């Protein structure tokens, strides 16, 4: 791996950090802009991913669907409030596929409910296809493959 | 973001790693030297931070105050012993303000008490103002904004 | 620390990420190849490490011993299945010793058992001696020093 390839890690780390900060600081309206207009966001259990099954907890196929999701989260879904905190490993660079940068990042998301201790909420890995655009790196595809079979209550906010 | 700005992430990651190692290896006497002489260290609940309230759990405004704190921790406070372990995301670079480097880093601190399993202790983010000095990067200001409203027992060691 | 030294962090982060991915994706047969032929892998409680005691939970002194271990894990040991997920801090570079790169990395390993929530399994730090070979960076020595005195049940998979 040459120096330019190595430096890509830094760019992806910065992208991941901005993404995590937007979610954890509850700037949900900023979330769809991390993706291409026709970007895909999928949240899938590891068991289904490993077996190649299409079943996913969440599967959004455009920014428009992501905006609908954000509207649902912030305006219509009734749920108990909680804070999230993403802690991420440095990104692992995978071999590129044509124009697309491929990377994988292990994550842990912690949840804190009012008046309660923080707890492990969801752990897994992001599997990403990233494209360089005039507005910076964007996700063509982000798949969140989670280990946690039992999602504590329901998953409301994006991972 | 150009290459030199990107490389800053590595310098801050190294600073963060040394800081975390000093605390987790209980070299508390080394801790004040991570700050400028008039550096500020604040530990604040997210709720207060988000509302702009000044109320903080800990607010130290010089190395001298930090040394007093370390003396208190190591010499005078009676408390049950525990180990800490910091796991940090790569640092996120924020736009600089004059001479000051600004960065933010998500953290998880785990606690292990003798004979017990490790547990999530405190999660949140560091919000930092960093200055380049002849002795390397130093914190002009480190604010630890924690999600965890209920601090498990009392917080003894620095975050 | 000059630029070339800083860039080493990226190489070690990539090594750590590949290592963690191999374990968490259960590609255990790939694990010994992260080490030199006479590489050493040790898992030791922090208490023993800090006191300089030799007692270790696991001490393997060659790839051959690691392969035996993998055989044991995958073929002979009866145990309840679980998933692991490593989340790692960026690597901290330590001063080199001759030809060997020295680094230390804080880790958290989460465990997920079928139908259960994810939990903190083991936290600590890797203390590494790394050698550059024609096949890339390899561990001459990886010591996993864990804080968690009470290992939840028994530790089956490598850390």
From TrEMBL, chains A, B, C:
The keyword Oxidoreductase applies. Keywords: Dioxygenase, Oxidoreductase. Residues 5-143 form the SnoaL-like domain. The keyword Oxidoreductase applies. SUPFAM superfamilies: NTF2-like. One of its GO terms (molecular function) is dioxygenase activity. CDD domains: ring_hydroxylating_dioxygenases_beta. Belongs to the bacterial ring-hydroxylating dioxygenase beta subunit family. This is Aromatic-ring-hydroxylating dioxygenase subunit beta.
């Amino acid at each position: 791996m040459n120096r330019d390839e190595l430096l890509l890690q830094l760019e992806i780390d910065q992208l991941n950090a901005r993404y995590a900060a937007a979610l954890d600081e509850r700037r949900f309206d900023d979330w769809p802009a991390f993706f291409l207009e026709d970007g895909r966001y999928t949240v899938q259990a590891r068991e289904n991913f490993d077996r190649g099954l299409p079943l996913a907890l969440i599967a959004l196929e455009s920014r428009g669907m992501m905006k609908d999701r954000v509207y649902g989260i912030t305006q219509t879904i009734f749920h108990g409030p909680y804070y999230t905190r993403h802690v991420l490993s440095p990104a692992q660079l995978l071999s590129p596929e044509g124009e697309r940068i491929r990377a994988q990042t292990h994550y842990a998301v912690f949840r804190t409910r009012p008046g309660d201790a923080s707890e492990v909420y969801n752990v897994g890995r992001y599997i990403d296809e990233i494209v360089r655009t005039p507005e910076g790196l964007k996700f063509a595809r982000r798949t969140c493959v989670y280990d946690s079979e039992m999602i504590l209550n329901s998953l409301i906010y994006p991972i």
